[in-house]
Amino acid sequence: MKNGLFINYEFCTGCHSCEVACKKEHKLPKGQFGMHVLKDGPRLDVNGKWEYTYIPYPSHLCDLCAERVSEGRLPTCVHHCQAGVMEYGPIDELAKLLDEQPKSVLFAV
Amino acid sequence: MPVYNQEIYRKEKHWKEGEFDVYRNMQWTGPGCHEGCGCLFYVKDGKLDHIEGDPNDEFSRGRLCMRCLNMVDEAVNNPTRLGHPLKRAGERGENKWEQISWDEAYDMIEEHVRKAWETQGPEAIVALEGTGRNVVWQVPLLEYSAFKSPNYGCGFLSGDSCYLPRCSASVGVLGGPSVVDCGQYDARRYDSPEYEYPEVILQWGCNAIMTNADGFLGHWIIDCMRQGGTKLITVDPRITWMAAHSEYHIQVRPGTDAAVAMAMLHVMIEEDLVDHEFIDKWCFGYEDLVEAMKDATPEWAAEIAGVTAEEIVGAARMYATAKPAAFHWGLSTDMTPNGVGQAHAFMVMQAITGNVDVPGGNYLATGPFGVDALYGCGYDYFIDDELKKKRIGVEKYPLHKFGAAACLVGDELLLQIEAGEPYEIQVMYLAGTNPIVNMAAEAPRVYKAMMKVPFIVVADLWMTPTCTAMADLVLPIAMSCERDSYREWWTPSRAITKITQYEECKSDEEIIVDLSLRLNPDGVPWHDVESLLNWVLEKDNAPMNWTQLKDQMYAYDFKGYRRYETGKLRPDGQPGFNTMTGKLELRSTLLEAMGYHDLPFFEEPPESPVTRPDLFEEYPLVLTTGKRHWEFFHSEHRNMPTMREFRDQPEVEIHPADAEKLGIEDGDWVWIENQRGRCREVARVTPIIKEGVVCADHGWSFPEKEAAVPVLQGVFDVNINNLTTQGVVGETGYGAPYRCLLCKIYKCTPENSQVTPSDLVFGTKA
Fold first, then answer.
1. Residue B243's closest chain A neighbor by CA?
2. Which helix (H) or strand (E) holds B510?
3. Looking at residue B30, what is its pLDDT?
4. Residue contact A82–B5, C-beta within 8 A
5. Which candidate, B269, B201, B265, B276, places its Cα nearest to that of B231?
6. Domain range B87-160+389-555, its CATH number among 3.30.1330.10, 2.60.40.3410, 3.90.550.10, 3.40.50.740
7. A44 to chain B: which residues are within 8 Å by CB?
8. How far does B466 lie from chain A, in Å, by closest CA?
9. Which of B343, B388, B585, B759 has its CB 3.0 to 4.6 Å from that of B169, i.e. a possible disulfide?
10. Cβ contact, residue pair B2, A14, below 8 Å
11. Are B472 and B182 within 8 A, CB to CB?
């Protein structure tokens, strides 16, 4: 089973830690991202509630931190996420989390 | 939460891993913030190679923010940082320097200090610091022990508008500051069997996840939401991410918060949502509070604050009926002259709902093991009663004498420098503060005043605009991993240890030792940094000194909850609170004794649409300043390319409806102006901000620009403190209107930009 990234985006605060951790790990220059945080809002939805949501997504530069993982570490984005909303592991294991946690996504890389 | 590999992330202090030495340590700072997060420092050949968050640190649990993640190449190993003492070679502002030795630097300081002692007295020597990083007790102790002066203070922060108003008021109400309980006082954290997640966290005037203020890691609130189902209530003029994720968001006009808080108290009292058992047994002055809140109706507050009565009532009910409920109060509490009255209302709300010192409520925070390693460190030991009277401003504002975090009154210092009366300030020592870029209100005025001081030393990490503009001597300061240090505020008790050395940098602790041994050799009970750090803990009878603490890195001193029942809040060991009556003083006898409001109260800001309709006609927008961003800690980090990649320019948020009226589009450079001055920032047209209010960035300079005067990294052109005030403070001397002023905004054009604020400051286009 391949490994993937689980992200509970209900609680992603958009703090950029995953992006900078990734840039440092992979020595990415300005404008380049392995993890990139996408943003929706703030905008009023049809119910009069504010939509203000971030989703970090792995770009084509993401290798799930193959070198770190081979050393027994977590991908650096998962390790440093301030909100603790990212998990790394076998996709079938992570898929179970989708069932438990609404507003979450699973990325195969 | 991710599961970390415990074979790699070990609990001992140091281990070898391939070519690296790995050290567990805590980052307190700069560069950085208030926190003290756990970091793993990977060192190769004596040089820091990379860092990771320390998963075994109970405080931060592996996570790190973008600033720490960026720390190695762009801060610690950044070749543009200061590495040697520098003596001014040209005129002030010319940015010409001569590298000198530490001995020569100390000779200069000694000469000027002794001259001040002989011609006036030690009180003519002033030491100022920035916010609470590892200068927080070090600058006061240097001032008291080496310079023998009581005149330690903040870097011209008007009204001491950062935590001090809240902390000082809390002494007279709760017996000390109260902090949201995210289990941080107990090493077991959320796993403690006693701990309960807050059902509700009310976050007022703060965006905790960005600010991480005062030893409180904002993402702990996210932990509570994600793990414990905690719901949020937010009071903020901005729709922050946290506000958007709240059950109630009360979008107040800046500076009217106390009215809303009083109306919430009114609702809780009227609807009998209070904890009578706690009030009857432990509180003083409830009947007075009931009387004082009688007229503070939700309708009254709603009209003042520009919100609805329904949301005030709804938020009041939700907070008061949640068990437990926690209250997170931000810096905006302090940044109004009404700050103490507002803080008082907040504390009373925590109290009458029975949420003080309970699990998941508001914990009464004290230094671990009773150690004072804050502003008062060494004050009583080194400064006698006669000299204490010479602390500038404290006779006029006595709460500064008796408050929790006492220091001189910065507004009065400014007046004294300007007047040269009753005596001239001869020596000024600045550490970790960059006043003319960051905290000094009326920055051009402060700049001119500071230029009158004949000898100025600046101790910092970088050649800041404050160094360039006015320093006669610049001292290069060690960063966090380069120093032996001690950190509390609030917990745990931490022994930070030195891992690497950069050039000739010294820590503030080394400077205290070196200068005190030169200037007060018979008066100080230490002879090196280790004995100094041991003294800091031993003076308050801590059970272990620094030498013992450093082997275990940090220690928790959790004394349980509901300490008013167990006698652990009072020095005499009796049950109750550490106040004059021994009760939690809803009506404060301390504030009463000083002739101040002794109950929560509301006053309009001194320059508001209500108090100054004349000004409002010309300046029709409410101005608030000082919010934080992920990328920066106040004026720091502008020289770091990765942080600038994420945020490159100072921005002022303006509501789309206001922008449309003014013909301003997103991305336009605009002038922000009031009767005291103007500055320019980039307009960010966004529904985040309340209509009629603008929110302007602070702390900007451009390290990529010319450092010398008259450019000075462009600081005065973008300094929002061209518009703020000095000397407009609350009755206690605490609280100034940084966050509730008036302004107008208009697009920058070549015609209206011919004479810039910098030109006015430096007289370059008279």
1. A50
2. helix B508-519
3. 87
4. no
5. B201
6. 3.40.50.740
7. 687
8. 29
9. B343
10. no
11. no
**Closest to B66 (Cβ–Cβ): which among A15, A71, A85?**
A15
Searching chain B, which residue's CA lies closest to the CA of residue A69? Answer: B5
CA pair distance B272, B660, nearest whole angstrom: 46
Comparing alpha-carbon positions, the chain A residue that sits nearest to B212 is A82
Measured CA distances, A56 to A16, A53, A62, A81, B699 (Å):
9, 10, 12, 10, 29
Please report, in angstroms and rounded to a whole number, the separation of the first and last CA atoms in chain B. Answer: 61
Q: Which one, of B573, B626, B588, B672, lies nearest residue B438 by Cα?
A: B626
Share of chain A above pLDDT 90, in %: 98
DSSP B387-436: HHTTSTTTTTSTHHHHSSS----HHHHHHHHHHT-S----EEEEES--TT
Token pair in block for residue B569? 């809040």
CATH 3.30.70.270 fits B178-364+572-593, yes or no: no
Residue of A nearest to B242 (CA): A13
The residue ranges of every structural domain in chain B are 14-76, 87-160+389-555, 178-364+572-593, 613-762
- Chain A contact present for B657, CB below 8 A: no
Which chain A positions have a beta carbon within 8 Å of B249's beta carbon? 50
- SS in 3 state form for B45-90? CCEEEEEEECCCCCCCCCCCCHHHHCHHHHHHCCCCCCCCCEEECC
Measured CA to CA, the distance from residue B16 to residue B763 in angstroms comes to 59
- Rounded Cα distance between B394 and B82, Å, is 36
A-B C-beta contacts closer than 8 Å: 106
Quote ipTM for the complex: 0.98
> Is residue B164 pLDDT above 90, yes or no?
no
**Dihedral Cα B667, B669, B672, B673, nearest 10 deg:** -150
pLDDT at B58: 97
Nearest-Cα residue of chain A relative to residue B207: A13
| H/E stretch holding B22 | strand B20-27
Omega before B422 within 30 of 0, i.e. cis: yes
- Using an 8 Å CB-CB cutoff, list residues of chain A that contact chain B: 8, 10-11, 13-17, 19-21, 23-24, 30-31, 41-44, 50-52, 54, 71-74, 76, 78-88
CATH class, domain B14-76, is alpha beta
Domains of chain A: residue spans and CATH: 3-108 (3.30.70.20)
Tell me what the mean pLDDT of segment B63-88 comes to: 98
CB atoms within 10 A of CB B635: 23
Check whether B1 has a pLDDT greater than 80.
no
Q: Which two tokens stand for residue B488?
A: 């509390």
With residue A17 as reference, give the H or E element that holds it.
Answer: helix A17-25
